[in-house]
Sequence to fold (461 residues):
Amino acid sequence: MGHTADEFIVASEEKAFDMKHRQIINYNIGKYDAAVDRGLSKFINLENAKRKGHAIKWRVMENLDKFLPEFEANFQKRGGKVIWANDTEEANREILNILKKAGAKTVVKSKSMVTEEIELNEFLEHHHIESLETDLGEYIVQLLGQKPYHIVTPAMHLSKEDIAKLFNERFGTPLDFTPEQLTQKARELLREKYVQADVGITGANFIIADTGSIAISENEGNARLSTSFPKIHIAVVGIEKLIPSMADLDLFWPMLATHGTGQNLTVYNTILSGPRQPDETDGPEEMYVVLLDNGRTNLLAQKDQRQALYCIRCGACLNACPVYKNIGGHTYETTYSGPIGSIITPHMNGMEEFKHLSYASSLCGKCTEVCPVKIDIHKMLPQFEGLKVNAELSGNELPPSPPPCTSPLKTHEPHSNVGWQPGSIQANNKADISNNLDKCFLFIFHLVKSHKGRGLLPGCD
Fold:
């Protein structure tokens, strides 16, 4: 095992016997479990909803080469601009180009795991641009200099006393401040930042092909402020977040909210379809969507693993996992922790360095049971073990990029080369992407046809 694996074992043992950590996590996840049970009880047929979600995401992944250009074309019709990024380096470079062109010095961010994935805050800080998290949980861990602990609740590992102590040290608030008072203090500190910011950066929970829109779900309203006040809005989104139609939100919004927090719906659900139009009174003057690959097509090329791309980032599998509840989120040293992170991280960050994560499971199947889109997570972990065993038996090293085709996001000439201007796409970019998509998905189409003949969808038994 490598250095990362050794560190994981040491950190796991340390956290598993940290009684304070276990008490905080058990308390917070216990509250989550009670809320989710109440929320799920309101579904007339939860199993049917999960199957439908699985089928929709299957359709998207098998036809990604059609839905991505459809989204791009519809988004551009309303003045939006799409940037295709193969990896972290390209995504950060393109974002920096936009900021430099605008002369931006301050950025406000809403909660986004993809921007954590590309380490955008650290990148912007290195280039002397202030990047401020505006989600309360993200703001707290940013003040502590930490990474998010959980996909949905970044500060789950902290007690209210921990947060009160932090605010006392940083802002001089009394140690006996209540959670409500601490929230009010954070609101006072952040409100002026929205008005002063040059650029707002968000992620997106879903990108909608038929309308060329992005959908953002949140509970605090900070994403709406981050996309309304600044003159420029940049959304960074993984290519797997696609859904075919706006009508699909009727299913995915409630499923995400209920499995994520136990709510019927999150408080604020926003659909954005481009920059401010001539007849509109607010919104950004420019809007960009950065479509990020960063290893996702590697995962897509693995027939037995691509289900992991169905994930809607609800965090349910983390809260159900007995391993996660003992060792916590930071132990994984990855953006995406827990069961789903153990599958997708090696494909994004390197098989050799993160292959040990497949052992971080009891294989109890609870993660699969709670997944809102019926990803067979616990079955995929042993399959991942098979990839390693095959490599070891053959005497070969594990390939960092195992697909049998070129990434469909790669072009012959990266669009960030000299001559590219923020907000434009080179003339040859669409043709290159289209050609590579055709090649990459050819083997998938044969698979789809074989299943159509049987009248079955893979994974929908």
